[in-house]
Amino acid sequence: MNDLSFARAAEIIERMGHKTIVVYGDIMLDEFVWGSVTRISPEAPVPVVDVQRESVNLGGAANVLANLIGLGARSCVVGLVGNDATGSRVRRELHAAGAVRVDETLVVDDARPTTIKTRIIAHNQLVVRADRERRTPAAAHIEDRLIEVLRHATEAADALIISDYDKGAITARVLAEILPLAARRRIPALVDPKIRNFNAYQPATLVTPNHHEALRLTKSEDDSDEGIAAAARLIRQQLACSSVLITRGERGMMLLEVTARPFM
Fold this sequence. Notes:
This protein is of the alpha/beta class. It has helices spanning 6-16, 61-70, 85-97, 102-105, 140-153, 172-184, 211-217, 225-239, and strands at 20-25, 27-40, 47-60, 74-81, 106-108, 115-122, 125-132, 159-163, 189-192, 206-207, 243-247, 253-257.
């Protein structure tokens, strides 16, 4: 097991302040309804939540952007929102977070709602989650717009992050246009994948499946260190990418690079 030193971590974070990073992916809004439960509904055996407050956070690819800005990077997010009040709220939250080029990089799709996940929480426990979304892939004319926006957004980018939540904003066609363009421009492309688009993530610099996805993709059930390393090798071979980083929950991560042994 290898550790990242504090000095190296500090160096990486310090360098983030000089980078421009484009995030392309599924934009969401996370809504939280907080309250307490003192009774059960007479209509059905479910708790009645007395709402005390509400809050929202940027979610999905927009949360990735917020984290990058928190690390000091200059960043924008390219993705889809609906022509609705939630889309307007996402736009305001992105401006407040410090995202750049918000009005240029959000593509409005009249055929889908802005993805919003509402969590109702009582006494710090999740009672229920309600999702409003449409997961079908973007239509051809929306793909055209995404490609156009991404071409402009990556002109001066230091890195491109693909944040795929399988909500329809990321399609094989858009990836086939943008990933080769990033490679020609020598822009590192870092992909947080989903299985549906897996074979389309090339050329990529780094792919970051979790260990469940890695085992499913390689048709393996071996979750040992050796098994995960073997899965990483197969994924790197299949996608011809430079590196594979497999996240393993409480067991940390495993990084496989072209010229090095697995780093865990």
